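new request in #modeling-help
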Amino acid sequence: MTETFTCGDHGALMSYLYDECSLAERRVISAHVAICGACAEELTALGATREQLATWTPPDAQLGFRIVSEVPRSEVPRSNVLRPLTARWWQRPMPAWAQAAAAALIFTTGVGLGMLRGVDRGPLSSSADPSGPRTAPVTRADLVALEQRLRSEVSNTRAASAPAAATPADQRILQQVRAMIDDSEQRQRRELALRTTEMVRDFDAQRNDDLARIERTLGQMDGTTGVEVAQQRQMLNYLMRVSQRGQ
Amino acid sequence: MTLTDDELVARSMGGDAESFNQLILRWERPIYALAYRVIGREEDARDVCQETFLRAFRALPGFKGQAKFSSWLYRIALNLCRDWIRRQRRAPVMQMPEGVEPGDLVAESGPVESIEDLVGRRQLSAVVEEAMALLPEEQRTAIILKEYHGMTFQEIADMQGCPLSTVKTRLYQGLTVLRRHLEKNGQLTPQLVKRS
């Protein structure tokens, strides 16, 4: 390739574009590009494409991985430390057979207890008084005592649910929450500004498109009208000529 | 005193985990960027990056130093990316980037760049990412290694296990597809590509 360069030698073009060729090759390709419009245009376009590629940046990610023999919890973020997926026996999911066995055991125990109670209750229920148990009559004093008890319970409940004086820790948490809310509001405001700008841009682009389309249509209409006027003029000229000949 | 990669590797092989951590610190950003550009998803790229260093750490006793440490890392990362792509074969290889917080973008851009500029840059970046997603994996990887990691044709050929000429063809074909896509989306105007 060092002596000549022919159009369509993409490999050589790439070497030239990325500056990975010898000086002699570079000279040959430069000389060709100076006289070949197609190759020159292609090189310029590929160079421009490379410039555009530079705009693509990956989003910032929280990395900071570390290899640690023992995990100092305070230093390394949890997400950056790999741990084997081992769980305690009670955290592990139970196999299906064990679940079925447990269900059967619970069911059997329940049935057994129910039967026992039924047996115990049988003779008792048969000997019970059909009119039901007798209750002592409620007196006015009982009702007053009940009312007083209820009132005292309600007042106790109210006192328990009343807000306690805020401790310094609570105040700190409150401040943090407020700071978070402020931060969130600020973020939303920024996002709103960004979205608004995007919308304005889209709107402008659409408006420009519409204007261009209207202009094109008007141009076409102008052209059509012009043709019609020319035809009418031709017709008039023809009629004039015919009428003059007739005279 | 800054130690070279080779020196840090030697110390790591001697059992010094801190030296390996220095290597991680040095290479985690490029490896993450490579993974993100190849697979296109932030969280998965982070996972690939983490797994790359874990594998490298485990395989360190077998590292003979025939290649550069960075090339070795890149190869591990690319293999992991390839595995990821294979697993995602049913879904599109690359998707639009996950919701990047516009607020964060504004915050990180600083006060110099206006919101107008920021939106323009973001749109262009999205078009480039979209165009890259159109490329076959080999072409995309070749372009990423060349454009963003400054590798030579030979290094890419070694990495991809193909002849030098194939690398050049992949680059040419990939760039041509990108050029057409950018022109179609108005990011590369005909005036710009015409020679003055």
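bot summary: The longest helix of chain B spans residues 17-39.
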